[in-house]
Amino acid sequence: MTRGRFWLFTGFAALASASVVAGCGGGSPSSAAGTTTASPGTTATAPTATSAPPKTTATGACVFVPAALDHAILTSVVLANARFVKMRAVRASATPSFYYVSGSVDGSGTRHLLATWVTSDLKGGKPIYSVDANAALISVFGASSQASLSLSIDAPGAYRSRTCVAGNRAPLGSAAPGGGRPGAPAGQ
User: Fold this and answer.
1) Residue 37 lies in a domain
2) Confidence of residue 143 (pLDDT cuts 50, 70, 90)
């Protein structure tokens, strides 16, 4: 093999391996990873974590949590280096203007702690309340009972949002104790 062919082969191999690595989930949220094939010849784009959820969602359906709400909650989480591994929301059936938002949280040595909040705005601009004891423990949001007694960990929507994150074996969780600041949006 001549020196020119060797460098050409080496460059091609490097380019091919870089293409394979880039295709392994390192792309942007709007990349082809968010596209599913519905039937031959047609494609449907699945929502991504940064895309806006549908304006109306069926009660009990898992929806992606927009980055704005993710940020609004994280700014009030007291764990060092906190981040959400996965977050999903479900519209409350008894109070359809509210969404139960559950997330798997990592930070301060905690791994995959399941916590649940409730809010009436998936964009993060309205009050946020802690629904379960984990959310109350790791954030400064007040208990959901401050907004309505029907917004509790016992509500079907609360558990459904937890199963959207942790699967069918998600723990039920225990109610958030009273206290904390009232459910003001982050930064207020």
Assistant:
1) no
2) very high
